[in-house]
Amino acid sequence: MRHEGRVVIVTGALGGIGSALVERYLLEGARVGLIDLDEARGQAAAQAWRRQGHAVAFAAADVGRYAACAQAVDRIRAELGEVDTLVNNAGISPKHDGAPSAVQAMDPAEWDRVVGVNLSSAFYLTKLLAPGMIGRGFGRIVSMSSVAGKAAISRIVGVHYSATKAALIGFTRHVAEELGPHGITVNALAPGRISTPLLATVADDANQAVIRETALRRLGTPGEVADVCAFLTSHEAAFVTGQVVDVAGGWLMT
């Protein structure tokens, strides 16, 4: 029950890693605000958790738009109270015919969309929630980067995805320094290949190549990412900030 009494917001809350994050925080005693696009799925997920006795609020929002993020935060605050922890998990990686677009063929609108969801959303939510955290002298922020932000894997993701995940690392270090004096820790995770529904869009030979390059010789699970995130936002990691933790089974090492 490391997060008992806390209010946590998770963006991209209905996906593989997002769902695991929500489950982990609820089982550790937090009240959790879910932000995602699908109103019907989100309300159904929230209702299912409430039936189990958990405090959950859902807000449908396009996190690539500041106004939508502001409305979602207001709704969650009204239902659950002031927010202690933010997990910037929302992310997209468009593919066409099963493959990412090459840089010379990429539509600028697609670039803008990925930057909005993957990167700008982290800025929007941090901007909205930081004042309250500063006022209370406590806060936890984790953003979901990726090994794609540290290494070139163009066979799997597009340049927009890699660029945004690398930018989240710089964002994390800057905001950690800026907010540290107020008792707020800011960290990032860099997952490797995680077994989520998104893998259905990736060719099996690409996944097998990653497995061969991974020290543990397997894919990760959403729950394993959630485990590390829950640690970073707990009291146990109170002196950890500005860090990027690889959850990749040793892929970058090899």
From TrEMBL:
Name of one Pfam family that matches: adh_short_C2
Assigned keywords, A-Z: Oxidoreductase
BP GO annotations: monocarboxylic acid metabolic process
EC number: 1.1.1.100
UniProt KW rRNA processing keyword: no
Gene Ontology molecular function: any one: 3-oxoacyl-[acyl-carrier-protein] reductase (NADPH) activity
PROSITE patterns: ADH_SHORT (PS00061)
InterPro entries the UniProt entry points to: NAD(P)-bd_dom_sf, Sc_DH/Rdtase_CS, SDR, SDR_fam
Top-level division of the source organism's lineage: Bacteria
PANTHER family with a match to the protein in the record: 3-OXOACYL-(ACYL-CARRIER-PROTEIN) REDUCTASE (PTHR42879), 3-OXOACYL-[ACYL-CARRIER-PROTEIN] REDUCTASE FABG (PTHR42879:SF2)
Family membership noted in the UniProt record: Belongs to the short-chain dehydrogenases/reductases (SDR) family.
Name of the featured protein: 3-oxoacyl-[acyl-carrier protein] reductase
Origin species: Castellaniella defragrans
